[in-house]
Each structure stands twice: as structure tokens, then as C-alpha cells.
Specification:
Distance between the termini: 115 Å
Number of helices: 3
Shape: flat
Strand content: 35-45%
Radius of gyration: 40 Å
Helix content: under 10%
Number of strands: 34
Length: about 475
């Protein structure tokens, strides 16, 4: 019995020490929910320069529970970030944890060096060395409102590229480090020949390359300036070009559902392009812009029907194109751009074609009903066989009910249908409603049915009245 008690006491001591051990927890799977605080340890000698941000990949993150036990070792660095731009007087920085629980601030000591100088290797094939002004795109009268590279439509054409650049910083005398892209800025400009100073070029809002460089002279050199982000940035430049944005090609922009209509009982040759037709001839630009507006006077447009091209007109006179004939109920438009100063070298004026555009007779395709002041009379026979109600009793000129054809193009015809008329007429149902079943003034649903096209019947709600 004494030996048994000694053995049990020994086991209790062992378990007691285990409970106090703050090594990795082994009771179940590790979970971020158990993390109370996180510590970060540098993986080696970490060197940061002014303008950089601490990189989570340089550290090992360990999560502990409230009792100090290790919950998770080597936490994923993707859970951490730092938005603090480092300066030379800083000796610590912090990381933000994006996990499922809140933890105290995670701080680490840092050594930040001042940058002595930077050099740029701009020899890679993907380094962008030619820049262009931006041009107004279709629907924009001008570029007056475009002022920031965050502009959704123009922003990507106003950004100086860092592609292919290798920027190396020298610090602490002779030591060097290649900078990440977010540690330096780039700007397009020129070196003023008179004072050897860098003058930035504003990429926003200019319609020509020369206008963007108001003070530029033939002796100035266009460059891309690379600058570090510290208070007194180290800078260097490499040669670049800033050129006028030019048209590389043109194309038709036509709504997918656009068709051309001609009047009922006319011939397709009577068709015309409407004054507000959704047709535009747009340009692709050398800087990559698509949908740039073109000068209407420089665009020549023709059409083909039955394989023959008409004479050309300018885009501004598009509605004057003549439909001499139409075969197969479609036409094709052709356009050429005949400007010479705003196109790339070797630009061809060969015409580009649109898709086939349907030419459709604009016939009735439904009805439009205007109730007006019409009220349905109770105890009244609205059938075609009665003489109680005449067309004048319900028409627009009388009680205000108006029924017209809706045409294929979606517009209303000026031709009014007649109540119970034998030609272009319509009926009303129900044909009679007793006042025994409905009080005057109560609303009622009536159905208007065109006699020639019962499939176009429509139901409207009107008020009732006593006979």
C-alpha cells in the first residue's frame, strides 16, 4: 500500500510539471481562435532602407495562448502586413494581423539606413521608354475633368511604368540593396537645358504632346525620374520619349440590336439612317486606348446594298447616305479615315466594314393604349352588335380612350384604331357589366383587342360610371 501511494504521488508530480510546461499545445488541433498574442522574430539580419516597409516574409510569427503556451508555430506570413513607411530615425515598427481574433500590437525592432544614392538598370526589354498624351474617348467632349491616375477610364494611360526596372540603392557607405517597386516613385518629365532641373510632365488632360510640355524646348531631354520615398530623395533618370498619341486603326461601334427601318408599304430603298442612329467610327490609339473619338470630318462613310458601294459622305453627313437598292434586307457600312497628321506612319485609308445591318419594314407590331378620361359605363352594351355605344363615345375626341399601333421600331403610329371598326378596329371586353355587381366609380379591368390582331390584346384598368 505504501509503494502504491508513492507511485501515485510520482505520477502527480509528472503531470503537474507537464501542466506548467509552455511548449507547443498538444490538446487538440492548433487554432487561431486560441491565439491571445503573437510575437515576431527576425529570420536573420534584416536590413531596411528609408522608404521601405517591413516585410512579413523576413520574420517568423508565433501565436501564444493567454497562459503563454505556444498555439501555432510559423504562422503564415500572408496573415501579416505593414503599411508603415520606414524613416531613418525609427528603431521599431509594427505588423497588422488579419486573423480571426484580435491581438495586441505586434512590434519588432528595426535598423533603418539612409539611402546614399540609387542607380537604375533600364536595359530590360520590357522597360517602357516611350509615353504618349491621352486623347478624349467616345462620349467625352474633352479631357478637362481628367486630373488623376485613379481615373477609371484614363488612369492606366497616365501611369509611368516600373516594368523591367532594377533600382539599386547604396547605403552605409558601400553596401547595396535592390529596392522593391513600392519603395520608389517614377515620374515622366524633362531636364531643362537652361537650369539642368527636372520638370515633370502632366499626363492628364492634354490633347497633344507639345501642349503637355509648355516649357519644353529642343534642347531639353525627356527622361523618367526615379526617386526614393525619403524626405530628401535620392534620384536618377533614364532617357525616354514623349510623343503625340496617334491613330493606329479605326472600327465601327454599332449597337448589336440596331436595325434600319423604312415606312410601311414603301420599298427598302426608302430606308434611311436615323439622325440619332447608334453608329460611331472610333479609333484605336498607339498608347493602347480603345474607343477614342474621331474627327467626323476626317471619316468617310459609304454603304453597300446588293454588292454596290454608294458614293461616300463624311461621318457628320451620315444621315444623307442614299439607299439606292437593298437586296436580302440588309446593308453594310464602310468607313475610311482620311486624316494625315493624327495617324501612325504607314496608316492605310482602306475602308473597314461593319456587320450586316438589317433593313426592316416599320409595320404595326402591337398597340399602345391611353385611357385618358374614359370611364366604363355600367349596364351598357359595348359589343359590336349594339348601337348603344359609338366610336365617338369612347374615342380620344370624345371620352378619351385612344388606341394606336405600336410600330416595329418601338414608336407609336399616328394612326388611331376605331372602336368596333371593321378596318383597324378594336373591341372592348367585358362587353357589359351590371350595376348589380359593381358600384359606379369602382375600378374595372377591361381588355382591348385589335380585331385584325387579337394576339396583341392588352388589359388596362379604368374607372366605372353609371349609365
Amino acid at each position: 500500500m505504501r509503494k502504491l501511494m508513492i507511485a501515485m504521488l510520482a505520477l502527480a508530480v509528472v503531470f503537474g510539471f507537464a501542466a506548467c510546461d509552455n511548449s507547443t499545445a498538444n490538446s487538440g488541433a492548433a487554432s487561431q481562435l486560441d491565439v491571445a498574442y503573437i510575437e515576431a522574430t527576425a529570420k536573420g539580419d534584416v536590413v531596411y532602407l528609408e522608404g521601405e516597409k517591413a516585410d512579413p516574409a523576413d520574420y517568423t510569427f508565433t501565436g501564444y495562448d493567454a497562459a503563454g503556451n505556444v498555439v501555432i508555430e510559423n504562422m503564415a506570413s500572408s496573415l501579416f502586413s505593414s503599411d508603415v513607411v520606414l524613416t531613418k530615425d525609427m528603431d521599431k515598427t509594427g505588423f497588422t494581423y488579419a486573423g480571426v481574433v484580435s491581438v495586441p500590437a505586434i512590434t519588432v525592432p528595426v535598423t533603418v539606413y539612409e539611402i546614399d544614392k540609387i542607380t537604375v538598370d533600364a536595359t530590360a526589354d520590357d522597360v517602357v521608354k516611350t509615353y504618349y498624351n491621352i486623347v478624349a474617348m467616345d462620349g467625352d467632349a474633352n479631357l478637362a475633368g481628367v486630373t488623376a491616375v485613379t481615373d477609371e477610364k484614363y488612369g492606366k494611360f497616365m501611369t509611368v511604368s516600373k516594368a523591367g526596372l532594377v533600382v539599386t540603392a547604396t547605403y552605409n557607405g558601400t553596401e547595396t540593396k535592390v529596392l522593391d517597386e513600392d519603395a520608389y516613385d517614377v515620374a515622366l518629365g524633362y531636364i531643362d537645358a537652361d537650369n539642368d532641373e527636372f520638370e515633370a510632365i502632366d499626363l492628364a488632360g492634354w490633347k497633344s504632346a507639345t501642349a503637355a510640355m509648355t516649357d519644353y524646348t529642343a534642347g531639353d531631354k525627356v527622361v523618367v525620374q526615379v526617386s526614393t520615398k525619403d524626405a530628401t530623395p535620392a534620384t536618377t533618370t533614364f532617357d525616354a520619349k514623349y510623343e503625340k498619341n496617334l491613330i493606329t486603326s479605326i472600327y465601327f461601334d454599332i449597337d448589336d440590336d440596331y436595325v434600319i427601318y423604312y415606312a410601311e408599304d414603301a420599298t427598302p430603298a426608302a430606308a434611311s439612317i436615323g439622325a440619332k442612329a447608334p453608329i460611331a467610327v472610333l479609333a484605336n490609339m498607339v498608347n493602347g486606348q480603345t474607343g477614342a473619338a474621331t474627327t467626323a470630318a476626317s471619316v468617310k462613310v459609304a454603304l453597300t446594298a446588293d454588292g454596290t458601294k454608294t458614293s461616300t459622305v463624311t461621318m457628320s453627313d451620315l444621315t444623307q447616305l442614299k439607299f439606292t437598292s437593298v437586296s436580302g434586307n440588309s446593308i453594310k457600312l464602310w468607313a475610311s479615315y482620311e486624316g494625315t497628321t493624327d495617324v501612325v506612319s504607314g496608316f492605310t485609308t482602306d475602308a473597314v466594314s461593319s456587320r450586316d445591318i438589317e433593313v426592316v419594314e416599320n409595320v404595326p407590331a402591337g398597340i399602345t393604349i391611353t385611357v385618358g378620361t374614359f370611364k366604363y359605363a355600367l349596364d351598357t352594351d359595348y359589343s359590336a352588335d349594339t348601337e348603344e355605344v359609338t366610336a365617338a363615345d369612347v374615342s380620344a375626341s370624345g371620352a378619351g380612350l385612344k388606341v394606336v399601333y405600336k410600330l416595329t421600331d418601338g414608336t407609336d403610329s399616328t394612326k388611331e384604331l376605331t372602336f368596333n371598326g371593321k378596318t383597324d378596329g378594336y373591341n372592348i371586353t367585358p362587353e357589359e357589366v351590371s350595376s348589380d355587381n359593381r358600384m359606379p366609380g369602382a375600378p374595372i379591368d377591361i381588355t382591348i383587342t385589335p380585331i385584325d390582331h387579337p394576339e396583341w390584346a392588352k388589359t388596362v384598368t379604368v374607372a366605372t360610371k353609371a349609365n
